[in-house]
Design goal:
Number of helices: 5
Radius of gyration: 17 Å
Helix content: 55-70%
Structural class: mainly alpha
């Protein structure tokens, strides 16, 4: 039994990149209306750029791995295969880790405190309303194979 969310999907609340984008826009608006002191410097900008690049490369690797396995990248779509290779050997959620690393790169590059503040509810939302629902769905869909994978590989990093 797949669950009550829908016929064959985890019933996540939104497309995760849109959740991160919403936090970014909210943080920028908060900074516009209530500016806080920036912590930006050349070192932070360089570190942010490197984090952004690392997150982007990790995300590309994760998407490539899912596509190579012939399953959907979109979390609201049915999953046709349990992917356990590529970055999925290290994290059960490498695409969300990649989005978080990219976001942290933007935070460091911009030095905007509000962007860091808006990341907290995003991570809470992603964990409880997306990841946890996906886990229930994957366990219902793949059973013992998913449970063994879950024991072997960490949720995040």
């Amino acid at each position: 039994m797949i669950g009550e969310h829908s016929k064959d999907s985890p019933g996540v609340i939104s497309c995760p990149p849109l959740v991160f984008l919403g936090a970014l826009i909210t943080g920028l608006l908060l900074n516009w209306f209530i500016p806080l002191r920036s912590f930006s410097s050349e070192c932070f900008r360089l570190a942010g750029g490197l984090l952004g690049l690392a997150g982007t490369l990790a995300g590309i690797w994760g998407v490539y791995t899912l596509r190579r396995a012939g399953t959907s990248v979109r979390p609201g779509q049915p999953v046709t295969a349990l992917v356990t290779d590529g970055p999925y050997r290290f994290s059960r959620n490498p695409l969300y880790v990649a989005l978080t690393v990219i976001y942290l790169g933007i935070v460091l590059s911009s030095g905007l405190v509000w962007l860091l503040v808006t990341l907290i509810p995003v991570l809470t939302l992603v964990h409880w309303r997306i990841v946890r629902r996906e886990e229930v769905y994957l366990e219902a869909r793949f059973g013992d194979v998913y449970r063994a994978y879950r024991v072997r590989v960490r949720r995040w990093i």
